[in-house]
Design goal:
The protein has 154 residues and is mainly alpha-helical. The protein is 74% helix and 0% strand. The longest helix is centred in the middle third of the chain and has 35 residues. It starts with 10 loop residues before the first helix and ends in a 17-residue tail after the last helix.
Length: 154
């Protein structure tokens, strides 16, 4: 690392750290509140039913996304929308696998076809910003000449 380069962590690192700290606390609080309101047994039953519904939705939407990806590739189109949907479905699956109601709500929102476009826009903006940052910070290193020296042989 060069001496002029800052050692500050990017903002997303702090956001991820905060999420890993705050989300479990919020999940536990919500589980306790629901358990006090409807009882422990019903809360556990609701969590199991939520997991079953999430698994069914993931399977259904994943199959649709895979079919759309195959169709886009067969048509010779760039499957950017289909790949974004696939990534969102995988993220939704991870959220649905974690126990709790808060992450399940976000997972279901990423799974539903009418709410997924918002997630797709956020994902596209994040990826575009990251690509722009990487390209803007790329500096030519040793051997990155714009002129290629060589000999043409007939």
């Amino acid at each position: 690392m060069s001496p002029t380069r800052s050692r500050r962590r990017p903002a997303w690192v702090w956001a991820v750290f905060a999420a890993f700290l705050i989300v479990p606390i919020v999940e536990l609080w919500v589980l306790i509140q629901v358990g006090q309101a409807i009882g422990v047994g019903w809360t556990l039953l609701l969590l199991v039913a939520d997991s079953i519904l999430g698994t069914w939705l993931i399977k259904r939407e994943g199959a649709k996304a895979y079919a759309a990806l195959r169709e886009a590739l067969q048509d010779g189109r760039m499957p950017h929308r289909e790949l974004a949907d696939g990534a969102l479905i995988v993220l939704a699956g991870a959220l649905m696998l974690s126990p709790g109601f808060v992450t399940d709500v976000f997972g279901v929102l990423l799974l539903l076809p009418f709410t997924r476009p918002l997630g797709r826009r956020v994902l596209t903006a994040l990826v575009a910003r990251r690509v722009t940052t990487v390209v803007a910070h790329k500096r030519p290193g040793p051997g990155d000449d714009s002129v290629v020296r060589g000999e043409v042989i007939d």
